[in-house]
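Everyone, study these two lines:
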Amino acid sequence: MQPSYPESDQSGGTGRPAADSKPALSKRLVMPSVSALNPEPARTPEPAPGLTTTSMRPSMPFAGTAPDRDPAPTPPPASAPDPALAAPPALAPDRDPAPTPPPALAPEPRRVSTGGHSAGIKNVRGPKPPARMPEPPRTPPVLVTQIRGRVVESRHRGCVVEVGIDGTVRRVIGDPDTMVNLRSAVKPFGLVALVEAGGVEAFDLTEAELAIMAGSHSGEDLHVRTLQAVFRRAGVSQQFLGCGSEGAPLDDLTAARLSRDGEKPGPVRHMCSGQHASMLLLCRINEWPFEEYWLPDHPVQRLYAATVARAFSTSADLLVISTDACGVPAYAFPLREVARAFAMLADPTAIPEEDSRSGLADALCRIRDVMIANPEFVAGSRNRLDTSVMKAVPGRIVAKGGAEGLRGFAVLDGGTRAESASGIAIKIEDGGGFDRAISAASVEALRQAGVLDPAALRALARYHRPVALDPRGEPVGEAVSDFQLAPVGELLG
């Protein structure tokens, strides 16, 4: 549809014929102005803000104005300019533009869009600044590889750090400041709350009963009988246990027997029922309610958190808290701090008196000794790394694992090592790969730290290089540790 013009003037107000108003080449690009489509009586132009009114007319013609003389010839543009880039903001049809003429320069080259940067075309004030790139993540080193035939099927990355009681980092690979959830590795330190509250004397707890509260048992019958005896003496029903029964029992033979007999495992067979029993005993001593004792705001959990904070030389309000699989709070710390806590467990009497953690020494000594004397109650009687390590090096090490590829070792002084007591903490980044990675890395780290003699290394061979078997029991793959701990002398600040 062609726009209609008044019969009196088809020149668009220019005073010359319409056919001569534009060069022939650009005629097809010219659109009628708004003033031409909607003619109004001419108005006296108002001065722009901040400018004084003059009788001068701009030397360059603008749309809708009649120039006093022909403008300087300029070559027509090769193509239609992009209105979003080249055109100035549209002016009202009844107002003259600002009287300042643009400089007589060559036409500005048209900006060409680059893929994926549409903001640079839409923004007439300039292209959008590039987004700040995040820092690349630090990749932990490979600790264990899973090999089948000649093919590396998987690689397990992680970190290992050995720390002395004074905070000196002795050996390390990877980032010792990696944040980790303690999970079940917190149990020896949280049990201090029950010992300090007089629970051992109040309930006449045996060494095995105290050890099972510091460990993660396999749910075997000896573990169930031990806990049931505690509940009877304390007058607490095991029905209050809030740990659930998911994954219980850990022991394969016990699980097969229960399945054969049609017996459904209860919460008492859960690996965390010992820890939960200690919390219920604290409720009994302090006359706190048993109901919902697992909630973070319950008095027993506030006491437990304060005790853990003391062991790590911090305050309860600064703890990084999440929820463990058994329902109670879980606490996170840098890996080197986990190793330092296990160093204190190895020799609590060596904690300096000026250290706020020195007050934990008596309780930690008691817990360490019962764990060393009862390794079957810390884990289980069959196929548990913690128990096997403590049996392979009797009287010289405490082992306690946590979920997702975490493990801590409290290495006592003496034996073949000339070094003083220390703590070793290991974290497998991907969670451990069915425990094969954490098992292989643990034994290798203990070997490099000089904890294992040849006899102990032979006793732990099945953990050092876990073997994958086919249906006929033939080995078809194995997990191999391949890392080197670097000796360092960095002192923790």
